[in-house]
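Duplicate of #3305? Posting structure anyway:
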């Protein structure tokens, strides 16, 4: 669907698709999808709200897919384009559609509502986030409710007063035929809940539904997950499902973000563990994820029988084999009697191994060459593949940094929404992506369509290339000895002084290169790297005399873009920049990309976005002026707990004197891991069982002691150093530094684990 007929040379050849030329692509797509949806009479459930739409949708799928054939929005496809694409998937065989709808400003929901026409509505959590496009919370709720203008049932939680009021007004004013099914911890409701008990990993609730009382045991503890799970339960009850059956299935619910886990394996391998489910859709998603991990030529998939599919074995495993082939999977290890019985389907795969049971595979595991493989482990729960995962996982000292790639993706999208059309994004992945990892992050950014990457040193760029990153990469601080590598690995240098310029041009001349892409850094006040204003004429002269260069971009760096009291200086930098860049461009005779904005400038100075912006810290979630998501969670573990009597001291130098009988926990992180020593003696805090407890005594090299008096903790418990409920910005404040230093200082011996959806 296009608005302009492309020239045939712009199309891939051979071109095997139909082109629909329409006036307005999005509108046409929406009209078409709305028409498609009306061809089917299946019940459609519309899910909206501020947080948790995707989780509710995925959990409902997990709870009900054994009973019904369900079509659902892929991933978080809930936008003006995502919704039509979701609806387009509905087919004759489907028995239930779960469709997400997300909006960012007034007026958008009407369009989505007329397309989706949900019979039943589910209102997810209405937090106060993302309220920018609305005049206030009430208007945001009202706008979301308009999805249900023609629905007959709405499922929601009564505990938020503003939601309750808006729903009442909505029923009275806009849809008198709307019935409601409510749940609540506090007020009378169709489903009434009470917390029974909660420990570190489980929550037990008591539910009352009509005359029935039952208990629910969930492997979840955080408020958001509980809200989403209860909303799912309420929907199922509203549809007449047996409470006992549903609550049994709820034992299996897992946070979605935990679905695909990427970590280092033994023998240089990389492990992806997808313990979520084993339907075909999720296999396709996991294979996509596997192939996004770059240039590992050697890929192994360990797959169990796929249970509960409506397809016959040969058809089902034929589809699996096709998908493995398409993704260039080298080896399949099939576990289970069904997949083994269909082994002839997999003749197109280079290497296949089949085992009847997980135990049989474990017994043979030593003999299988896994060196340097990327390994996907995907098994139905009853095969217990976590045992394989444990055997293949690289063992560590238990302090890990978990990186949520979906959160980073959403942060990126938040900034993208703030950009004027056509502005490019250069993502700053220097210093191990601000401590978050190298190619894992770069691949995600590449997949998200970022235009450029920037690193500080050539080595970092070489690593990204070796891992298979294809995006253009700027190197900010290349040294003269690096040019050979820059050429080999297609890296683009920043030139910042006449010396660096001469060295580069001499090298290029010797190697007979012309029009080599370079970036010119102008110093407008940072006084770090860059050509100064008084070097302007010399620079122009040199650039014009050097056909070996093609100047891709002219740029500078803002000194204090985050600080309103320095806005006059920011303007001064901009004026200086123009005075230098204008004549350079004129003399060169071609246009260069101009860029000056870092993360905070993107939203504080939108008029400075120009041709490109350089997004750094915001990606990683540490810009307090935006409602970003924390990307990294640093976790450690309690090694030992002991009682220390009043008057005794803890740690080196007798600095941690205890004034009462205390309980002290020793955790496995110290300054060698990047936990600043300045956080000792009560300055820093960590989260133990959700409670903030102070550091006592000095931070040691590999360990730190916490005063956990009054907190019921056990040895082996997980401890959060920073993360969602303890932002890294709090830590940096305590340590008297900035989040940049904390994030990049987490040492390489701390294993990174990546999660993706
Ligand atoms: C690190 C860096 C950025 C990114 O800055 P953030 O504040 O992290 O967004 C941009 N430009 C240059 C030259 C940098 O060195």
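Output from current build:
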């Amino acid at each position: 669907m296009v608005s302009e007929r492309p020239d045939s040379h712009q199309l891939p050849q051979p071109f095997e698709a139909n082109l629909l030329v329409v006036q307005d692509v999005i509108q046409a797509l929406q009209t078409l999808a709305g028409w498609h949806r009306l061809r089917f009479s299946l019940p459609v459930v519309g899910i909206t709200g501020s947080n948790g739409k995707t989780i509710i949708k995925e959990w409902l799928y997990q709870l009900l897919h054994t009973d019904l054939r369900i079509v659902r929005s892929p991933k978080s496809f809930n936008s003006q384009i995502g919704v039509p694409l979701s609806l387009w998937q509905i087919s004759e065989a489907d028995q239930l559609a779960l469709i997400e709808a997300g909006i960012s400003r007034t007026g958008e929901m009407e369009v989505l509502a007329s397309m989706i026409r949900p019979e039943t509505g589910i209102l997810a959590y209405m937090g106060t986030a993302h309220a920018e496009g609305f005049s206030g919370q009430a208007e945001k709720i009202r706008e979301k409710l308009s999805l249900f203008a023609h629905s007959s049932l709405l499922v929601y939680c009564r505990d938020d007063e503003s939601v309750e009021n808006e729903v009442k007004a909505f029923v009275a004013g806009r849809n008198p035929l709307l019935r409601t099914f409510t749940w609540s911890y506090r007020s009378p409701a169709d489903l009434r809940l009470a917390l029974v008990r909660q420990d570190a990993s489980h929550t037990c609730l008591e539910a009352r539904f009509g005359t029935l009382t039952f208990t629910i045991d969930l492997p979840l503890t955080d408020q958001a997950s509980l809200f989403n799970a209860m909303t799912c339960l309420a929907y199922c009850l509203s549809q007449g499902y047996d409470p006992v059956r549903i609550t049994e299935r709820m034992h299996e619910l897992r946070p979605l973000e935990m679905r695909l886990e990427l970590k280092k394996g033994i023998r240089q391998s990389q492990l992806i563990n997808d313990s979520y489910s084993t339907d075909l859709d999720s296999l396709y998603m996991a294979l996509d994820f596997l192939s996004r991990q770059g240039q590992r030529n050697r890929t192994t998939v360990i797959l169990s029988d796929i249970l509960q599919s409506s397809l016959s074995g040969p058809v089902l495993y034929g589809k699996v084999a096709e998908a493995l082939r398409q993704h260039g999977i080298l080896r399949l290890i099939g576990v289970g009697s069904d997949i083994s019985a269909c082994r002839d389907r997999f003749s197109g795969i280079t290497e296949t191994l089949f085992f009847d049971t997980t135990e049989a595979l474990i017994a043979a595991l030593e003999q299988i060459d896994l060196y340097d493989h990327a390994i996907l482990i995907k098994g139905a729960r009853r095969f217990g593949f976590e045992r394989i995962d444990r055997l293949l996982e690289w063992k560590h000292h238990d302090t890990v940094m978990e990186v949520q790639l979906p959160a980073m993706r959403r942060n990126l999208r938040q900034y993208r929404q703030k950009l004027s059309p056509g502005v490019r994004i250069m993502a700053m992945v220097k210093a191990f992506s601000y401590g978050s990892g190298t190619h894992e992050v770069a691949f995600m950014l590449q997949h998200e369509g970022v235009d450029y990457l920037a690193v500080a040193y050539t080595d970092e760029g070489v690593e990204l290339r070796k891992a298979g990153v294809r995006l253009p990469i700027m190197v900010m601080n290349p040294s003269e000895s690096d040019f050979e590598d820059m050429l080999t690995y297609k890296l683009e240098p920043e030139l910042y002084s006449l010396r660096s310029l001469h060295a580069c041009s001499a090298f290029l001349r010797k190697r007979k290169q012309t029009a080599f892409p370079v970036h010119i850094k102008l110093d407008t006040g940072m006084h770090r790297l860059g050509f100064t204003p008084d070097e302007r004429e010399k620079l122009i002269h040199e650039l014009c005399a050097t056909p070996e260069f093609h100047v891709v971009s002219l740029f500078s760096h803002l000194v204090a873009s985050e600080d309103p009291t320095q806005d006059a200086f920011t303007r001064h930098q901009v004026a200086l920049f123009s005075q230098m860049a204008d004549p350079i461009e004129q003399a060169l005779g071609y246009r260069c990309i101009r860029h000056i904005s870092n993360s905070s400038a993107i939203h504080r100075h939108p008029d400075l976005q120009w041709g490109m912006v350089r997004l750094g810290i915001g990606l990683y979630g540490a810009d307090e002026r935006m409602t970003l998501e924390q990307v990294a969670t640093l976790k450690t573990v309690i090694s030992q707990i002991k009682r220390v009597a009043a008057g005794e001291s803890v740690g080196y130098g007798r600095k941690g004197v205890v004034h009462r009988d205390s309980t002290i926990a020793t955790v496995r992180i110290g300054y060698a891991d990047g936990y600043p020593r300045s956080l000792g003696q009560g300055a820093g805090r960590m989260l133990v069982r959700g409670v903030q407890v102070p550091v006592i005594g000095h931070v040691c090299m590999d360990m730190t002691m916490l005063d956990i008096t009054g907190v019921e903790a056990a040895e082996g418990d997980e401890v959060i150093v920073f993360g969602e409920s303890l932002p890294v910005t709090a830590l940096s404040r305590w340590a008297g530094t900035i989040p940049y230093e904390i994030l990049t200082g987490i040492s390489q011996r701390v294993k990174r684990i990546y999660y993706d959806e």
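Confirmed duplicate; merging threads. Residues 428, 557, 598-599, 614-618 surround pyridoxal-5'-phosphate (CB under 6 Å). The mean pLDDT is 92.
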